[in-house]
Amino acid sequence: MTDSRPSRRLRQGRASLAISFFVQGAIFALLVTRIPALQDRYGISDGLLPLFLAAVPILAGVGSVGTEHLVKRMLPGLVLRVVQPIVSLALLSAGSGTTVWQLAVALAVFGLTVGALDASMNMLGVSLQRAYGRSIMLGFHGAYSLGGIAGASLAWVGAHWDLPLPTLYAPLVAILVPAALIAGRWYVDHAAQQADPAEPAQGDGPSVGMRALLPLCLVMAFAYIGDSTVSNWSAKYLEDVLHSSEQLATVPYNVYMVTTLLGRSFGDLGVRRFGAVTVVRAGALLAGGGFAVVATAPGAWAGMAGFTLLGLGLCVLVPQTFAAAGRLFPGASDAAVARLNIFNYVGFLIGSPLVGALGGAWNYRAAMLVPMALVLMTIRYARSFSPAPAGYGDGHERPRTVDVG
C-alpha cells in the first residue's frame, strides 16, 4: 500500500512558508495601521500623503514583474530569503527617519521588495499545494491574516502608550527578521517537481497566455477592491454614515480580520470537499451579501454584521485565485503567479479612490454597491477555478472553461 502522506521535507516546507506569511502579515499591518503616526513624524500634508501611499502598490507591481524574470535565474525560495528581511528593515527605516526624502526612499524599497516577496511566497505556496495534491493555500493566507491581527494589535499598543515609531518597530523587527531567516532554511522550491520528477521544469514550460489568465486577474482585482474598501472606509462609514461612536468605528476592521482568519482556517476543508468552483461562488455570494447589508444597514451593529459576512466571503478568493493560476499553467506557474500578483495592487489602487470619489459625489451607501457588483461578477468567472483540462499547460490545448467575454 502506497503511503500518500506528504514527506517530512514537504511538511517542513509548509510550516516554514506559513511562518513567512505570518511575518509579512505582521509587517504590513504595522505599516498601514500607523500611517497617521508616519504622517505626523514627517509633517506630510493631507494632499501629499496619497502620493506616498499610491507609490507603494505601484512599485510593488514593478517588483512582482521583476520577480517573474528573476526566478528564471534563481529559485523563488532564495528570492524570498533575500527580500523578506529587506522588507522588515524598510519598515524600521520608514519609522526612524527625520526627513521626507528618507521616508520616500524607505517606502520605495518597501514597495519594490514587498512585490517580490508576495510573488515568491505565493509561487512557493502554489508549488507546495501541487506536491501535496490537496488544497493548502488558504492555510498560508490564514497565517498572513493571523500576522495581520498580531501586527495591528501591537500597533494599537504603540498608539495607546504613545510609543515613538522606532521604539515600537525596532524590537519587533529584531524578532521577526531572525524568525524569517531561520524559517527560510526549510523552504521547498519547485516542490511539485520533487514530488513528481516527470513534471516539467519551470524554465522549460510554456509561456503564460494572458487571455487564459485574464479571468483570474479580474477576480484578483475585484477581491482587492473589496478588501481595500473595508480597510480604508469601514471606520469612516460606521462613524459618519451609521453614526457610531469613535471607539466602535475601530471595530469593523478587526472583526473583518478575525472572520478572514476563521474563513481561511476552514476554507481548505471546503475546497477538498466541495471543489474550488463551489467555494469561490459561495465566497462571492457571501461577500456580495455583506456589501448589501452594509449599504442598507439601519445602524452600526447591522453594519458590523455586514463586515463580518465580507470577511467570510472575500477571504477565500485570493488564495484560490493563486492556486487556479498554478493549475492553469503547471509548467509555468511562477510566471503566472507573478503576473497575477500585479492585479493585487491594481485592485488596491482602484478600490479606495473609487469608493471615496463615489461617496463624495453621491453618497457612501450607494458607493458600497459598486464593490458589491464587482465582487458578484466573480461568479461569472468561477468556472476558471476548475481543474485545467487534460493537456493544458503543455502548449497543446486551450482551456474550455475560460470566459472573458
From TrEMBL:
<keyword id="KW-0812">Transmembrane</keyword>
<dbReference type="InterPro" id="IPR011701">
    <property type="entry name" value="MFS"/>
</dbReference>
<feature type="transmembrane region" description="Helical">
    <location>
        <begin position="274"/>
        <end position="295"/>
    </location>
</feature>
<feature type="transmembrane region" description="Helical">
    <location>
        <begin position="136"/>
        <end position="156"/>
    </location>
</feature>
<dbReference type="Pfam" id="PF07690">
    <property type="entry name" value="MFS_1"/>
</dbReference>
<feature type="transmembrane region" description="Helical">
    <location>
        <begin position="15"/>
        <end position="35"/>
    </location>
</feature>
<dbReference type="InterPro" id="IPR036259">
    <property type="entry name" value="MFS_trans_sf"/>
</dbReference>
<feature type="transmembrane region" description="Helical">
    <location>
        <begin position="47"/>
        <end position="66"/>
    </location>
</feature>
<keyword id="KW-1133">Transmembrane helix</keyword>
<dbReference type="InterPro" id="IPR051788">
    <property type="entry name" value="MFS_Transporter"/>
</dbReference>
<feature type="transmembrane region" description="Helical">
    <location>
        <begin position="301"/>
        <end position="325"/>
    </location>
</feature>
<feature type="transmembrane region" description="Helical">
    <location>
        <begin position="168"/>
        <end position="188"/>
    </location>
</feature>
<feature type="transmembrane region" description="Helical">
    <location>
        <begin position="78"/>
        <end position="95"/>
    </location>
</feature>
<protein>
    <submittedName>
        <fullName>MFS transporter</fullName>
    </submittedName>
</protein>
<feature type="transmembrane region" description="Helical">
    <location>
        <begin position="337"/>
        <end position="358"/>
    </location>
</feature>
<feature type="transmembrane region" description="Helical">
    <location>
        <begin position="101"/>
        <end position="124"/>
    </location>
</feature>
<keyword id="KW-0472">Membrane</keyword>
